[in-house]
Amino acid sequence: MKHRLLFTGKKLIRMVLLLLGVSLAAFLLMSASPLDPLQTNVGQAALGTMSQEQIAKLEDYWGVNTPPAERYLGWLGDFVRGDMGTSLLYRQPVSTVIGQRLQNSLWLMAFAWVISGVLGLTLGVIAGANRGRLADKLIRGYCLLISSTPAFWLALLLLVIFSVWLGLFPIGLSVPIGADASSVTLADRLYHAFLPALTLSITGVANITMHTREKMADIMESDYVLFARAGGESAPSIVLRHGLRNVALPAITLQFASIIEIFGGSVLVEQVFSYPGLGQAAVSAGLGSDLPLLLGITVVSAAIVFGGNLIADLLYGVVDPKIRRGAAKR
Amino acid sequence: MEPILQVKDLSISFTQYGRGTRQVLLPVIQDLSLTIRPGQVVAVVGSSGSGKSLLAHGILGILPYNSHMAGEITFLGQPLTPKRAEAVRGTEIVLVPQGVTYLDPLMKVGPQIRKGRRDQKARQASRTALKRYGLGEEVESLYPFELSGGMARRVLIATAAAETPKLVIADEPTPGLDARSAQRVLGHFRELADGGAGVLLITHDLELALTIADRVAVFYAGETVEEADAADFTAGKLRHPYTRALWNALPQNGFVPIPGAQPGPGEVGKGCPFAPRCPKQRPECLSPVSYRELEGGLVRCLYPEGEMV
Ligand code: SF4
After folding, report:
1. CA dist list (Å): B132 to A329, B125, B159, B213, B256
2. What global pTM score does this model have?
3. Distance from CA of A242 to the nearest CA of B (A)
4. What was the ipTM of the complex prediction?
């Protein structure tokens, strides 16, 4: 137990360092951005009609005149005290914006994560256990096709087929247009999240399937599977008893590592479906020079990804007898 | 007594893709014949790469799907068809593999010995088998990585013995063990044979094989080049030049290395596979050499040891 606590503590320190690095990198990129916040947010024409005083005020608001180091340290100081600042674009506290957006995105990502995980594992195990046979060829063909298809293109395709032609799903947004927030039901949310989630799942499945297949095929060629066959175990029993057991560890790693891909994918997909999630907010924050929001989103998403990896490591300790028993002896 | 296992003219080959889509048939074992009677330990001795492990897989019917097997295998008087092999492997015919990598690393020992059965009878059988090899009940709840090399070997033998098999195939069961533990492990196979089973011992170690085997077949480049009673070997009565070379390579017999290398699958010509390394080679050796009887044994050589020409 002590061992595990130490392990978690070390991980947490690493997480803090990582978050610091990530936020600094995001800040530097934003500072180096050639976009002028005033021109992009206020517009060339509007700026032309303003007085020097007004422009100076706006420049102050967008932080144009503050030295970068001061800006970053100021943000960091507030952040450590639990204040993520105010979004310049939305004129709301960053924590509120992220809270809302994250809620929308979590629906989407959780759905895609579970579907791609379950489906990817199943397909990967089937393909790996039947390597070289028809089932494997079909599954591999599907994966190759999908992984060579850009996610946004797939999103557009699904949108055209299901929303435009068939009219089965809404074209965008996360809730019905004009609906009162209190009247939105869970069904509404799922209905709106379906197509974007489907897009994310379809692309996510390919990756997980291919990796699982690889592991499974290795397992099927292992000495212990040979010995199980020599011992008279049937093929299905071998897959269930030895295959799944041994594919579990790499599957956990894969599953939690895929969070980052789903995150990345969601940025594009939310854009196509005009789904008001975290990814979409990140894009507008980046383009609109909304520094507090961008840094907030960067830190929160990095923390989620890191948290995922941490969970994977801890689960490893539970599943792998080598770690479990090793820790028990200490 | 009716033989337990009879192998006649067994050949195993693999399909490989050569250049482009051209398929090449790669022979690994050719015309192998072998008989095992109840109570006998028959050793197949050959250096690594001679294809001897595939003999075990062939008998068990677990060759990879890109392989072909020809010839006859008879088990207890009945042809051992793929279907029958499937039915008897793990119960009447058991394999004792090389080492701990043949155990599922994430499964406890107990369930592996019981092969998923949970009934009282299976539990009893696995405990008895473990006890027979000096292992306690607690070993059942260990994971393979918690076993020492010698313990793992005994667990593997216990797995085989738990089934009261008729034929035990031991595939290189001693590497990595010191001489005494290796001797003890081999002793367990002798016991199984003395209990009435047939034991096929596949090994690279001629010296160790001779300590327990009744009969020895020497394997070279996919062919048996000599088969004789173990007593002949211990008495220094050897027939084939390769066997002689193996014998001389043993530490106590001079440690003389054999020059050259064993040809791999597909590199064997029509004639004697040992010809390139044989000191007695003659031009006739480059055409096919038949397997023939010689003084109570079998040999595949035109000019065997001890035969006057
Ligand atoms: S057949 Fe000829 S080459 Fe082959 S082992 Fe005998 S003597 Fe040597």
Report:
1. 29, 11, 11, 22, 40
2. 0.82
3. 7
4. 0.88
